[in-house]
Amino acid sequence: MAVRARRRTRLARAAVAWRHGGEAALATLDGAHMPSPEAEAAACHQLRTVRLSERSAPPRIRRTRGRLQLTGEGIELRWGPDERWYPYRKDRGQWWAAGPPAHDAAEALRGTFAAG
Fold first, then answer.
1. Its domain of life (predicted)?
2. CA dihedral of 55, 114, 19, 13, whole degrees rounded to 10
3. Of 43, 51, 55, 78, most Cβ neighbours within 10 A?
4. Is residue 109 exposed (0-12), middle (13-18) or buried (19+ Cβ within 10 Å)?
């Protein structure tokens, strides 16, 4: 029973990723693609210009294996094989694709709020 539920969740997560970006989005679901140091630095700079909700401070960013996680926000941007950032949101312990990809990390982040 638990195996079936995990499979359904996996399939649902894959379907959501596909809707947001096709094959490249599927590759970001479980894969780790590494941005160049320049692309990662640019993304961090772009994200520091974003303000989440009522906060005046920029989000705290944790870098891990081609992923930029906004600490305490349940949001993560993943670098795709097509050199775009894919936004993800954490829901019940699983990361779900949360919006369209973008070359600009701040734009990808804004897409998470527009999509959900």
1. Bacteria
2. 40
3. 78
4. buried
**Are the beta carbons of 39 and 83 closer than 8 angstroms?**
yes
pLDDT digits (tens, 9 = 90+) for 58-110: 788 999 888 999 988 899 999 999 999 999 999 989 999 999 999 999 999 98
**How do residues 22-44 score in pLDDT, each as one tens digit?**
999 999 998 889 999 999 999 99
pTM of the full structure:
0.89
Radius of gyration of the chain (CA): 14
Q: How far apart are CA 31 and CA 17, in angstroms?
A: 13
Round to whole Å and give the CA distance between 53 and 85. 21
Domain that holds residue 40: 2-115
State the amino acid at position 36 in one-letter form.
S
